[in-house]
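seq:
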Amino acid sequence: MNVCVTGATGFLGGYLVSDLISRGSRVSALVRPTSDAAKLERAGVHVVRGSFTDRSALERAMQGVDVVYHLAALTSRTAPSKQDCYQTNVAATDLVAQTVLDLGITRMVFCSTAAVYGVIEDPPVDEQSRTKMDSPYAETKLVAEQRLLDAYRAQGLPVVIARFPGVLGYGSPSFIGLFLAIGAGGFRVIGPGNNHTHISHVKDVVQGLRLCGETAGINGRIYNLASEHPVTVNELVTGIAHELGVTLSSVRLPRFPYQMFHAANCMLYRACGRELPRASKYELFLSDKVMSIARARKELGFNPKISLREGLRDAIAWHRERGEL
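struct:
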């Protein structure tokens, strides 16, 4: 199979490329001119350098491919402006989709995010659950989803959408803030810590993405890709503390002030598109972020296997090798 991956130099994209190559696929990648693509080139990837808003670069990268995995995005970690998020997460996605249609490519897999569910009030969420636009990242990802589904209905765009939560594994940058806070000592959980969160291991997400690209008859569908079971916040922070070799404080912070702060942030964003500092840092403690993966199990054969402990161990080892922990 011939495939194209955008975002191939990133954490998840790198794992996806390696998995596809190991299964015999020929892979091309559209890479920004400033990105380091040496590892991809050594692996035999056909690297095309250019902007994601450059139609000619997209055509060169996607010529003759069967499946496009569109992973390139601006995430909430970089605190991008709403305008920058829109340009990358919406406008560039529109152009990728139009190129897919024009070249007659048989499948486009769009990587979205569990952030589109916001703070979950009635867990678990499935693919029909209510979505919320409460950050530039969530809003632009959801707008991109809606436009892709509109193109599916109007023009037959062969798109499949994957939503997943935070991803762990060797090379994962997602939890460094929490690792540093716990590792510094004196970390205190907000609330009782018995609420749940869903996390995925990168290898399980790659399995799900590959199935989204290969499974017949699923165009226009959305799939949640998460771990086998959610974990409590207590289990998560205790696991991190264990891997870091530190002792957690038994003192808890009250949840109510942080709930009010987050509610104020959501109202501010809806009113004027601005966010309060650090508001997203507290979401982990404010709801049960549980995702149903029943549809992915039934329709894709998705079968996540890797434990939270292994994911934490891999991620922490990577940060330690880089001198960050």
